[in-house]
Design goal:
Strand order of the largest sheet: 1-7-6-5-4-2-3
Helix content: 40-55%
Number of strands: 11
Largest sheet: 7 strands, mixed
Shape: globular
CATH class of the largest domain: Alpha Beta
Distance between the termini: 55 Å
Number of helices: 13
Radius of gyration: 23 Å
Bound molecules: pyridoxal-5'-phosphate
Strand content: 5-15%
Oligomer: single chain
CATH topology of the largest domain: Aspartate Aminotransferase, domain 2
Length: about 450
């Protein structure tokens, strides 16, 4: 075994080293090479060395270089080396993080990472947190807690009695709600379309003056960090308006909540501490390996009730175990990766990481504007939307750029205009990566326009 793991370490180092100069997208030939890893299940096995060698030979070249410094698609972090290393060690431990008796180290370090994160984001003391696979499941768990709490307030136990026959709940979202929130609502038995949509302003922020009148059980889903513009809903104003009527306020803060950790950006997310629940990703801006997210809930008892299992004599129900607060039972101790990232970075390192990405986004916007292109959003965070002229030209630039391979950016439509989205979320991106990517974008536009 030791020689196998050392061999993997050598191969991984080589892979990461190669990302500096490799094209960000794999070539069609390397993707076709995956056929070498497929086919029918072999009748007899093969040595571990050869399995790993095949994985590296055919798998590594077919990766997207999102672990590198010039991937700006979606909102995707790279694995910080220390978090990847911690992830490997924890994988060797192979701990089940469901209960403390299965893994004292898993239980302890996940709690430490949750406490540190709560502190960095200045969320209220006493909120309950838990690690889940990502922001979608964090939204799901938080909204399950919300559903439980607002129905409990009117004397109905939804965890026991279910949704059929439950008192109706009003669900309020902004026009710019992330689709993962709608998925969570649908999984919880609400239906994606049965929501009240509140109009937004030109940056996609929910307009608190357009909130409906609130009566009866109500959940209001706000957003901290719009996937296109990076804008924040006015959570303080919204909370003040709806809390008096007893509504639950949830914040989808996948990447945007990390702005709270950077002194110069904190103001953007002002007031999120007034909410009742928060969903957060660690695999985006904290740059831990996939997959990792956190749900925080002010009323921990509501989360526990929402996740309650029926009694089983061999399982705990006293509120002391992680599995009582997550949708999963068995689970890897993914909080260990986050613990390692946070201990390595410290308060100032997280602030620098967030601030650096925001400054790179600013630099992208300034350089592209100087080159004559139109920036469609206020660049307040790490997101930039740029148009290169007509929708047709912008679409062509995006696909040519993706083929060319210096960097990778995706597309979107913002207020009816096709745009290229640049999201700077990697610890590894330097100013020279930004300059090199801007040059590649400008070259690509010239070529696309000439066609
Ligand atoms: C990324 C994102 C999600 C979904 O998160 P996953 O980690 O992919 O589950 C939800 N909301 C927002 C605002 C996001 O940026």
């Amino acid at each position: 075994m030791p020689s196998l793991l050392s061999e993997v370490a050598r191969r991984a180092d080589q892979y990461l080293e190669g990302l500096r100069e490799r094209a960000v997208t794999p070539t069609p030939e390397t993707v076709r090479g995956l056929d070498r890893l497929a086919g029918p299940i072999p009748d007899s096995g093969e040595s571990a060395d050869r399995v790993i060698a095949a994985l590296d030979e055919f798998g590594s070249p077919a990766t997207v270089a999102s672990a590198g410094a010039r991937y700006f698609g979606f909102v995707i972090g790279s694995g910080l080396p220390v978090a990847v290393a911690a992830n490997w060690l924890a994988a060797s431990w192979n701990q089940n993080a469901a209960m403390e008796v299965m893994s004292p180290v898993g239980a302890r370090l996940e709690q430490v990472a949750l406490d540190w994160t709560r502190d960095l984001l200045s969320l209220p003391a006493g909120v309950r947190g838990a690690f889940v696979t990502g922001d979608t499941l964090a939204n799901f768990a938080a909204l399950a807690a919300a559903r439980h709490a607002v129905l409990e307030n009117v004397g109905y136990d939804v965890s026991r009695s279910g949704m059929s026959g439950a008192p109706p709940i009003t669900l309020v979202v902004g026009e710019e709600v992330h689709v993962s929130v709608l998925r969570a609502l649908s999984l919880l038995g609400f239906g994606r379309e049965k929501v009240v949509r509140v109009p937004v302003d030109e940056q996609g922020r929910m307009r608190s003056d357009r909130l409906p009148d609130i009566t009866g059980p109500t959940i209001v889903c706000t957003q901290a960090g719009n996937v296109n513009t990076g804008a924040f809903d006015p959570v303080r104003e919204i909370s003040q308006r709806v809390h008096t009527a007893g509504a639950w306020v949830h914040v989808d803060g996948a990447f945007g909540l990390w702005a709270r950790a950077a002194p110069r950006r904190r103001e953007l997310a002002d007031g999120v501490e007034e909410a009742d629940s928060w969903a957060l990703d660690c695999h985006k801006w904290l740059n831990v390996p996939y997959d990792s997210g956190i749900v925080f809930v002010r009323n921990g008892a509501a989360l526990r009730s929402a996740m309650a299992t029926g009694a089983a004599p061999y399982l705990p129900t006293g509120g002391g175990e992680m599995m009582e607060f997550t949708p999963e039972m068995s689970r890897r101790a993914r909080g260990i990766d986050a613990w390692a990232a946070l201990r390595y970075l410290g308060r100032s390192g997280v602030a620098d990481l967030v601030e650096r990405c925001c400054q790179h986004a600013r630099s992208f916007a300034d350089q592209l504007r100087d080159a004559g292109f139109r920036i469609l959003n206020d660049v307040v965070l790490n997101q930039v939307l740029v148009s290169f002229g007509t929708d047709e030209v912008t679409r062509r630039v995006i696909s040519e750029l993706q083929r060319e391979g210096t960097c990778w950016c995706g597309g979107t439509v913002w207020h009816g205009t096709t745009a290229m989205r640049i999201s700077v979320s990697s610890w590894a991106t330097s100013e020279s990566d930004v300059d090199r990517s801007v040059q590649a974008i400008i070259r690509t536009v010239r070529r696309s326009v000439a066609k």
